[in-house]
Amino acid sequence: MKKTLFAILATTALTMPAMAQDKPKIGAAVYGLNAEFMQIWSAALEDHPAVKEGLVELTIFDGRYDALVQQEQFDTMIAQDFDAIIFVPIDIEAGAAAVDAAAAAGIPVVGSNTRVNSDKLKSYVGSDDVKSGYMEAKYVLDKIGCKGEVVIIEGPIGQSAQISRLEGNLKALAECPDVKVIEQQTANWSRAEAQTLMENWLTAHPDTIDGIIGQNDEMALGAIEAIKAAGLNVTDFAIAGIDGITDALLAVKAGDMASILQDARAQAQGALDVAIKSVKPDYEPMSDIWTTYSDMPWNGGTDAEYSVPWTPVTAENVDALLALRK
User: Fold this and answer.
1) With CB atoms 3.0 to 4.6 Å apart as the test, which of 30, 203, 214, 300 could cross-link to 241 if both were Cys?
2) Tens-place pLDDT, residues 153-179
3) Which stretches of 4-97 are assigned E, i.e. beta strand?
């Protein structure tokens, strides 16, 4: 899904940070917009009813996969008296300083999608990455009969999703002591970087790799491209990724890989509802995601954490998921 991202720029500054204006000015600091998942997340934020109806002023900042850039964007939002910030950090530790600065300025920060190691977040709306890491690795291990050799393609080292998904990967691997991890390296969520890694690994380990655990779909798809370029049969490998991006859905339908849908829309729109509530106490959520996930109750928008469930992509649901991308 490719959508042109736009920013609705605010024109009225607050006179006091503690007093929210009638139309709250909310910024979303995301780690990067190059790949489809965060494009879906950002498009869903722009599609939130409160944004479409002009009830909030929204600016989306592209962090360009750089913690320093994200810190500078926080500084800008603080200087411009934003009312609330939604934060999708590139680094679990480095992002804490940005949250500290916003908290010192009296600006609530709602985390989404990736975590930051800070106790100053207003709330967090995301999914359990340990669980998804376990689920994807379990698929690969089950397919290879809990024996053989696998590779792990990791996300950016130090980002919470990489840390937690690896924890889940290793939890599943511990259940299969006869499986050996012969390569493990980051491809930074990048399809191109993963393709290069896989090309090198296929050369270094000819005819030995049985499974590929890609910590996101982009990297799993990069591995598939390398396999095809080498003239090998994709179905000879057990391959899994995470996110449920469009190309991964098509690959699942083709029988090339497994994927787990991470609901970017629920994460983004849920975070915006919580952010608005933090500056407008009488606000009631406008997104329909709270009825979609009955086991994730709104609870007045005051919970410290909202956990969006994972949805395994299957032959039975893939066409319906693809239809949502049209």
Assistant:
1) 214
2) 999 999 999 999 999 999 999 999 999
3) 25-30, 57-62, 84-88
Average pLDDT of the segment spanning 85-99 = 97
Whether pLDDT at 300 is above 60: yes
Please tell me the pTM assigned to this model: 0.90
Q: Are strands 123-126 and 148-154 parallel, antiparallel or unpaired?
A: unpaired
Identify the CA nearest to 153 among candidates 124, 192, 188. 188
For residue 20, what pLDDT is reported? 42
- Tell me the per-residue pLDDT of 196-212, one tens digit each, with 9 for 90 and over: 999 999 999 999 999 99
Are 124 and 115 in contact by the 8 Å Cβ rule? The answer is: yes
CB atoms under 10 Å from CB of 202, counted, come to 20
DSSP codes of every residue in 184-242: EEE-TT-HHHHHHHHHHHHHHSTTT--EEEESSHHHHHHHHHHHHHTT--GGGSEEE-S
- Pair 151, 219: CB distance under 8 Å: no
CA 120 to CA 118: how far, in whole Å? Answer: 5
Task: Give the integer Cα–Cα distance in Å for 205 and 200.
Answer: 9
Strand order in the sheet with 148-154: 179-186, 148-154, 211-214, 238-240
State the DSSP code for 159.
S
Q: Are 50 and 272 in contact (CB under 8 A)?
A: yes
- Given a contact cutoff of 8 angstroms between Cβ atoms, the answer to whether 51 and 6 are in contact is no
Task: Please state the separation of Cα 65 from the chain's center in Å.
Answer: 13
